[in-house]
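Homework help thread (please don't just give me the answer)

Our assignment gives two proteins as sequence + structure token strings and asks us to describe the second one. The first is just a warm-up. Here they are:
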Amino acid sequence: MATLRQLEYLVTVVDTGSFTRAAEQLHVTQPALSHQMRALERAVGGPLLERLPRSVRLTPMGRSVLPHARAALAEVERLRAVARRTAGLEEGELEVAAIYSVSLGILPPVLRAWRRLHPGVRIRLREYPHADRLQAAMAAGRADVAVGPAPVDWEGPIRELGVEEFVVVLPADDPSAGRSTGAVPLAELADRAWVHYAPDNGLAGLLDRVAAQAGFHPRAAVRAEQTSAAPLLAAAGLGPALVPANIVPPHFDGVVLRPDPPVRRTLTAYTRTRPDPLTVAFADLLAEQARVEPSRAAPGEGEVGRGGGGGEGA
């Protein structure tokens, strides 16, 4: 059976491109390294590396094994970090997963505050375009805490962070821009070509749903891969965009209106069933400091529902 040490040897040889440099980095002799590599090859049933005059090259089997070796080593490091945190040490790594728009609008000030409180804890941020993929990543153990819409059938703790509003972005010279009410009926924009989202971005499904509720299907003038691009494209005149209010950048030269009826979603932070103390502390900080745009409309009216199947945020 392959050992973690042998997997570390394989990864180091590949990363350094040399048995000699790998042995130096690992503080072992080259014969010992070669012996362990042969033992690993016997364990997996075939050659993993081909020695070249000045380097090494992975065999087809080696290319298949290498990603699993890296994943196993990464998981071991995560286990060590959890153990250190459980022991109360102010070091290690916290993995935070979020949907795209949350990492743009809500997380930066929270991460800034966290860094002041826990400078020895590294933050690794993983971003996902869809709430379903976010929940799947959490279920697979790829992060310690997730920030996004409430997950479906989740057994671990869930903290509500607040209700976020969406806004419609238009260029400054748009005929609908000068409304004294600050709101625009979505049905009034039915004939427009919209700044839409790429199909794997959950906001694509959200826009389609709220437009259907208003009686139309939004035509796409352009589809944005990145959520942050949508308000900029709308301000440039490519079409209206429906975006989370908190991602609109400061000193924005477009017009921001509330959709009528309002569009909202509830954001949460959730963890696995038994989070460690450091994860709990981060979730607490999120609940205290996350700046979610407060709702200005009647509860339940136009809100993007909590739960699955819904887009980046729904």
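The one we have to describe:
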Amino acid sequence: MTVPSFAPLMLDPAAEVERIIGWMRERLRLDLRKRGLVLGLSGGIDSSLCAALAVRALGAKNVFALFMPENDSDPESLRLGRSVAQTFGIDSILEDIGPSLAAMGCYERRDAFIREAVPEYRAGWASKIVFDSTMTTGGYNISSLVVRSPEGEMRKVRLSASAYLGIVAATNMKQRTRKQLEYYHADRLNFAVLGTPNRLEYDQGFFVKNGDGAADIKPIAHLYKSQVYQLAAHLGVPGEILSRPPTTDTYSLPQTQEEFYFALPYDKMDVCLYGLENALPPSEIAAATDLKETEVELVWADIAAKRKVARYLHAAPFVMAAAT
């Protein structure tokens, strides 16, 4: 866990927890009219904090957790998710979505697009998508595919736009399948679905539309990632999760959020986002992050570009007005 040293991001954890759980109770009672919450536990910091907040707000008997591994999942994610459920006394169920994804052609479709760049890619290989940081490309996010052969050889290749989109489209089936199961269990229990994005993810569109972006209530979407760690430590989230680097756990090769989406580690991204939102001078943000002022401005430009993408992800369907 990185302890933030940027003063504006420091919270009074006890007061903030009480504020959040009061808001959660009101939304469930007044707006959603549900008696509990369902969430997916990934073994990551965000879902772990949300589970802890839900239990504090409603009691463990009114919280239900799902573990939803698939063929590419890190086994550590399931182990850590179970440790969270045990820590907070949450009832849970294992829903292995690998067979469903295989039946829908998720892996087969993805691998076909990978073979456009690496023709020999077959069973036994592993892969992930990475981006060259805007910090090193003059403001452009350039996608590449990293593959590992069964013999352990690593290779990085550029992707065509169509191959990149095809891989992402197939991979997005994972998040949408998980959300379908969350709503199934929410419907049978008369619970609401709890979404787990933090402020950085919510602002920058780091979610799948109608996948992990779908939820009835999102209690930590106002919290910077470093603030998530502050509250998680306060509420007793297991130390293994507090010290685990943020990961997507989506591809068959380990992949950090930084190499897939964000220009910087989350603690520096938090400071840059805060500076942009509060109109602080680049010099102040540079001093707080050990970046150059020109690098801060590149990060701000990247944030603005991702916000444009996020508009579509946040948007409700367009509905045409009736003729008058």
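TA reply:
I won't write it for you, but here's a hint about the kind of observation we're looking for: The mean pLDDT is 94.
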